[in-house]
Sequence to fold (306 residues):
Amino acid sequence: MNIRHLEFFVKLAQTQHMAKAAEMLGISQPSLSYAISNLENELGIPLFEKDGRNIKLTNYGKIYLHYVQNSLSQLRKGSEYISELLDINTGHINLGFTFTMGQDLVPRLVHEFLKNQNKKNISFSFQQGTTTQLIKDLIDDKLDLILASNPNNLLQSDQLSIHHIVNQEIMAAVPINHKLSKKKSVTLNELAKYPMIIYSKESGLRPDIDRLLQAQNIYPQIRLESTEDHTIIGFVHWGYGVAIIPHLPQLANNQVKLLHLDVKQNWHPLFLITKNNHFLTPSTNLFLNFVQDYCKNNYLDQDKLI
Fold:
């Protein structure tokens, strides 16, 4: 069905006068008459009937007009929304990130990005989850880009474009009154003497924790596995065990004691991830480039951990 013909129909329904409608549309009367006839033939019903020297809508025409106006209105809204998305200064970005990155890095990046007056009309939707969950939603086009752990262990990793942006310090967490709490740093062997609250296998951090432990042939007594930082902190706080966690800058001092780990690589790499061969709006590309430049200048080039 020709959208232009539907627009002709609406204009003729509004004027109920063939000559006026044709003039307002900038077409000839025969062209308008041809378009209406095509619609009527396609629908199999008359849309107009004579009313003296003018015409008027039939009952069928009145019903059809309601749906055509609603449909054209939705199409216009869709076109306007697409135009907004393609405007580098007014687009919308669907951003996903892992739980630990919501404490500081993600809100900091968005805040710094929107400080520029030209970008103040760009909007964001946010979604937290594990790396596995976020990758699935990225592949399903529910997210434009994500900040997460390395997804190399996932089957979909060949569909992704992965950019290393920052390293996050891995630390030990012990109860405030624990024997180790007076220390500034701790070895894995010291930590492994106690039951451990650990990230579950769904967490992107778990492979790095396993790597650290297995490198020293340590197989800890695992008391609980969880995907969520605050659950791990809560169980450590109440004395159920110790933990290896990423640096959480907003963690209250009275929750647990964080200790540096005496290991060769005490950090966890984090990545900006997009879907390969997938259209990104100008505003999303703008944010992607901003994140890479900001993290390079403020973290990677300075060997600074978050």
Observations:
- DSSP finds ten helices and twelve strands in the chain.
